[in-house]
Amino acid sequence: MARWLRPLVGALLLLEVAAALSFLHHRYEEMVQALFRVQSQCPYVTRIYSIGRSVEGRHLYVLEFSDYPGIHESLEPEFKYVGNMHGNEVLGRELLLQLSEFLCEEYRRGNERITRLIHDTRIHIMPSMNPDGYEVAAKQGPDSNGYLTGRNNANGVDLNRNFPDLNTFMYYSGEISGPNHHIPLPDNWKSQVEPETLAVIQWISSYNFVLSANLHGGAVVANYPYDKSQDQRFRSHRRTVNTPTPDDKLFQKVS
């Protein structure tokens, strides 16, 4: 290829990639349309299902990629992505929509790595856990949007801090030589959580997820278990100490 043609071809390829992607914020209806568009383009390896509804009645949709959608295959790992837990943190929401489009497009093109990934893994993608909060933030627009605008759900609750605190139970259990896994939820947990949180907990209980990722926006940081460290007393005052899990090296590598 002539030297002067190489930059031109490279530019054309970049334009082709840029044209295939839609770098836009998606309101709820647009997000739903984007998910169903991917499903219609890759009908044999995708499925859309809802795990429940938000406070204001919006579906919490999940797009699944698998060679057998809707079926758990023995020994096949299941992975879930969750975005937009904080309604005004839009990066995860848009990245997961882009990931969905990418997986479908590359599968149709015969990309061997993507084909192997979809055939050997069951992937569940939830672009938005907090669609109500997103709509609040989107209505304000970027110029007048405060740090807390749309962060919480429609009841004003931070969903990221709405799950039962099992870390404390686990630490206490360790002190009395009790179990450090399969710790049951408190008896009254359903009355203490929001509809979105309830739906996600029931979702987790219904599928054999082996690994998950929750995408936020803001600082560049990776949180992994145990995210809540153990407090220890040192001469009448408390100090936070590192409390790694037995899988700490794996979590660091994955992060």
From TrEMBL:
InterPro entries: CARBOXYPEPT_ZN_1, CARBOXYPEPT_ZN_2, Peptidase_M14, Peptidase_M14_domain. Keywords: Carboxypeptidase, Hydrolase, Metal-binding, Metalloprotease, Protease, Signal, Zinc. It comes from the Eukaryota. GO terms for biological process: peptide metabolic process; protein processing. Residues 1-20 form the signal peptide. Residues 24-255 form the Peptidase M14 domain. The lineage of its organism: Eukaryota, Metazoa, Chordata, Craniata, Vertebrata. GO terms for molecular function: metallocarboxypeptidase activity; zinc ion binding. This is CBPN Carboxypeptidase. Transmembrane segments: none annotated. The keyword Acyltransferase does not apply. Belongs to the peptidase M14 family. GO terms for cellular component: extracellular space.
